[in-house]
């Protein structure tokens, strides 16, 4: 049963029991309706308490159900709420830990609500590209007021129950045992009549038109490509402008409209994708993990410093190791400065600042880091350098320590072979700035022990990253794909586009940054260094030479004050460069390419489908375990627009046969060999299937 029924004296207790978060799927809704009917039929029962088992009152409607007919099957959430609200005996919601979405809507249908301290109260539907569709937009303003309800619904942000104690949302905040308090409350109101219903409350807000218009303007300006936030405002507006039942119908129509949008489907995909990524089929959830109480980072540069901050933010003391005192001092000073800036913005107290800075130490001596539970190497991306470091780590680190490499492209198995304990070696590829970016690509070597993988995944959660596991290959998931994207970007400028056209098209598509602005930010010399290695290792792969010519001019990007674009001192704005554009045009002439007008559509197709095709290889080879893992890498590490769900999800929405057709057309053009479709893509398209 997904809800339990028991009678305690004169009170029936209905307990939602649908782990993990008591989602209100069809079977739970059915069980609660049955429970209420049973209680109403029992003359000995005077009141009903509704609560949730385990770690939630309820996390809301079962999101997994949204793509299936059972989402709307009877009893629907509306029907359930109507049964509760229309009950002839008082129904009291006893709320704890998590009360969100449909869970809060159900509670709002109850006659009374009592809550434990610290319960997280939210209508977070907007984060899934929808709005509360079971009366939340109509009932919440009636108990907490128009303004607070609008804020909660448009932001989706949870509010602690005690902060809402003064509103009509709760009849009582219970400090001790929740059930004991709820039963005492039930006894105190068992005979009270008439039963209060939230629907009967009038939303009172003088001059609401002005407030609503202000809200529309503000929300419209902030919601970007997402339709849901503005629809939230419209639905909340209906709580003042329409009769209750009309408001409910209006809300329901908007909900049905939103749930079918690609934006909402993409956000739901990302929600489940993030959770799926931490599940490794041959590493069960109960795999024992190693204790991580201290960390060391080799290299105090930008990357090493950012990595260290992650540990410190999570309460794990870290020791930085450098080869020269000056570099060490500079690295630690930069971290300190970063925390000072956060403190100046009011996001860190002096006490927390002192704590964090106090957790960082430095050394020039390998012997000092030997007792750390994990060491992350963030040194120069060169196999020779990695060899020296890992041999040293093998000598000094205690047994059982995890030896992690922040390599972004190199062979983790080879790195592991430099040690006598390859089972303890793993790749942890952070993205710059490492203290900000959500992605952590976790590279599982062929010898990596299961508990090392499980520990690293758990650690990624602790440091608030989205950990995605990749197998070993050149560039892993993310950089192996971006290589194809960068190649296409290079060909596009050789054939007729200029950097600003490419960047604008990509940014209009929704990427945070186009490839050329991104190159200038990350440093064009990094790609140059990698290409030089590839020219030797894989001479069969063709690249545009424009990026090499740029680097030969010393234009490495923002750090040298010039890259694909010009920069002014103290200003990160990219100004198109006449010099670079002339260089590109001359290069086309030098290699005998007649430049042509390239459409924005072609730019997007070539850049995005190059990612998709490489990803299909990666999936087929088992480097990525699932298509959604690839999407998570791109959503959290490469600025792929979230409302498009990631490259694989996007290809699914375009339709794989359509993607394939465009690739076949591109294969007839210049560098057509790049468009040989991955067998998996061909197979899925032929079978009418999708990646996800
Ligand atoms: C809604 O209510 C619509 C209505 O207005 C109208 C309907 C007509 N459904 O995050 P965690 C799973 S829309 C199904 O790791 P935490 C999740 O997939 C809903 N499953 O834990 C994961 O499964 P697994 C509005 C759900 O403790 C497991 O629970 N509600 C749901 O860090 C643990 O999740 C929301 O948007 C769900 N509703 O955080 C709430 N929620 O273990 C979304 C979670 O198999 N959920 N799961 O991977 C959350 O914000 C967090 O999950 C929560 C727990 C705070 C609840």
Automatic annotation (TrEMBL):
Q: Which InterPro entries match?
A: 3-OHacyl-CoA_DH_NAD-bd, 3HC_DH_C, 6-PGluconate_DH-like_C_sf, ClpP/crotonase-like_dom_sf, Enoyl-CoA_hydra/iso, NAD(P)-bd_dom_sf
Q: Where is the 3-hydroxyacyl-CoA dehydrogenase C-terminal domain?
A: 475-567, 603-689
UniProt keyword NAD present: yes
- Where is the 3-hydroxyacyl-CoA dehydrogenase NAD binding domain positioned along the sequence? 295-470
Q: Which SUPFAM superfamilies match?
A: 6-phosphogluconate dehydrogenase C-terminal domain-like, ClpP/crotonase, NAD(P)-binding Rossmann-fold domains
Q: Which UniProt keywords apply?
A: Fatty acid metabolism, Isomerase, Lipid degradation, Lipid metabolism, Lyase, Multifunctional enzyme, NAD, Oxidoreductase, Peroxisome
* Reactions accelerated catalytically: a (3S)-3-hydroxyacyl-CoA + NAD(+) = a 3-oxoacyl-CoA + NADH + H(+)
Q: Where in the cell is it found?
A: Peroxisome
Pathway annotation from the record: Lipid metabolism; fatty acid beta-oxidation
What Gene3D superfamilies does the database record attribute to this sequence?
1.10.1040.50, 2-enoyl-CoA Hydratase, Chain A, domain 1, NAD(P)-binding Rossmann-like Domain
PANTHER family noted in UniProt: 3-HYDROXYACYL-COA DEHYDROGENASE-RELATED (PTHR23309:SF51), 3-HYDROXYACYL-COA DEHYROGENASE (PTHR23309)
Protein name as annotated: 3-hydroxyacyl-CoA dehydrogenase NAD-binding domain-containing protein
Protein source organism: Actimicrobium antarcticum
Q: What is the lineage of its organism?
A: Bacteria, Pseudomonadati, Pseudomonadota, Betaproteobacteria, Burkholderiales
